[in-house]
Specification:
Blueprint: E1 2-3, E2 7-10, H1 17-24, H2 27-33, H3 43-52, E3 61-67, E4 73-83, E5 88-95, H4 104-118, E6 124-130, H5 134-143, E7 146-157, E8 160-170, H6 171-176
Helix pairs in contact: 1-3, 4-5
InterPro entries: Acyl_CoA_acyltransferase, GNAT_dom
Organism: Thermotoga maritima (strain ATCC 43589 / DSM 3109 / JCM 10099 / NBRC 100826 / MSB8)
GO molecular function, one term: N-acetyltransferase activity
Amino acid sequence: MFEGKLVRLRAYRKEDIEKALEFANDPEVKKCLVPGIPFPWRKEDEEKWYQSLNPFSTDSYSFAIEKLSDGEYIGGCSINKIDWKNSVAEVGIFLGRPYWSQGYGTDAMRVLVRFIFNEMNMNKIKLHVFSFNERAKRVYEKIGFKVEGILRQELFREGRYHDVIVMGLLKSEWEDLTETDL
């Protein structure tokens, strides 16, 4: 388990499945989560995903996010793609809507970034964020991510095209930040 000021990243538990499914099927969460058709996930799909988690994987890692104050499951984050040769990892995060704008997402990303740089010895972390997801963009910028490119009109959502922003954070940039800045 890896702790921040507000949250802990831990292994998923079977009892997280119901809440994860509820959060992921919330239309406001889902529209920011997947680039494909935002079709509702079934419990069977979430159970298969849970069964596929492998702590010995070298391709991806998924963490449940829980509040330090009471251990409540509030979302998840993952290292989705790992390029060991070039020391680059791609990440993603989601929180249930009741936990938005309370500092949990920022804290969880700080913990995840620290884990990737300090435990995995990666040189770069990258992510994709949809242009309409202002809340997420602010979180990533606060942590030190920089816009590296814009995939113009890459996403069709709610009847119109949106850009997908590619952001990255180098280990050297992160090391230059102090804990108070983070």
